[in-house]
Structures
1.
Amino acid sequence: MKELREAIRREGKGIGQHIVKVDMFLNHRLDTRLMFDMGRDLADHFRKDVPDIVLTVEASGIAIALATAHRLGDIPVVFAKKSQASNQSEDMLTAMAHSFTHGNDNCLRVDRHYLPKGSRVLIVDDFLANGQATEALMSIVRQAECELVGIGIAVEKGFQDGGKILREKGINLKSLVIVTGIEDGKICMADND
Ligand code: 5GP
């Protein structure tokens, strides 16, 4: 996706050899126009699969999920929570995910009532690295006895295994941009439009 590649080129910073820092428009400050452009492209890709819920994980997935769900006809967004709260339902679906950026383990939680059995679920997230977050969300989709229609990602890091593993499983994966590497702080990207 041209607009996202340009934003990464303009504002992105490569940290070491593995981390893409895009706080300026995706992970801290949000570029509103870009969010809705990403939502448009993900919705256009998955519209034929007729999802009826978009599932993501807090916090950075929410904006892209919202933009995508809006373009899919204002279907609901459900986001997995990373912490437990006293007002949470007793009936939570859970799955563990190791965070690549924070180096800790998160227990992702979704109230079963928000993923009715048989729903057609589209997973959306900001980054795909080793695939831990998407694997945990897929586990929650399975536990809810829902159908996964596909996975939409803003930035896939092609030099980590997540994308390869999902494609080998035959999952409909759409990544708007694929980062191929980081060289001396420069973020290299594939022209995958
Ligand atoms: P995975 O679970 O696929 O290993 O990593 C995906 C999750 O880790 C995403 O939800 C994202 O929040 C975070 N993440 C992984 N790599 C990066 C990165 O290079 N930059 C940023 N900003 N987040 C990342």
2.
Amino acid sequence: MFVVLLGPPGAGKGTQARRLTGATGLLHLSTGDMFRENVRDGTELGVLAKGYMDRGELVPDEVTIAMLLERIARPDAADGAMFDGFPRNVAQAQALDEALAGRGAAIDRALLIAVSDGELEGRLGGRWLCRACGAVYHERNDPPKEAGRCDQCAGEIYQRDDDRPEVVRTRIERQKPPAALIGHYRDAGALREVDGERDLDAVTDGLLEALD
Ligand code: AMP
């Protein structure tokens, strides 16, 4: 099964993807995580992506699509995956459709996590991540038990450069799923919308139901 998670930055795609992959066994593929790994490792791709990421802009399609297609060609993605943060536009969706069609597959579900702009600003501004395992915390809603340390692996907790308030607004404006992208999956009969303004468990349940 191939599943796409759609939603604005801060809708909880990463958090929910981790929960859903735990529940379904699907492979979690996040283009944001892939870019952050490349930035951390100082690769050529990371150097290129970092400028866009720090400004809250999308990395160019050519680069992003090539990275994603290379990743899904690996054997662990043969039977299914949950895409988190990809596609961000119709060109990326079409590239993914074509690659899957080439192996007789398609996107079975596109799950849209709906959250209002005001709620997003508050969430992103307070978000902190573990540098080692990527676990997500929120200074108000879901803080780690020990300040600055990850509950799961004791790694260091940090704030993403692009979660600073001045960048957050740009990301929300520029990175909302465009109507055409939502329409792409609606036309394919794959779209399901879930209210993302409820507590984490309720959203997870809603998404699992939508996956049936
Ligand atoms: P995310 O973790 O999904 O919020 O992504 C972090 C950053 O990585 C974004 O602000 C973009 O700069 C970049 N990025 C992630 N996924 C994509 C994508 N599908 N297309 C273009 N840029 C992306």
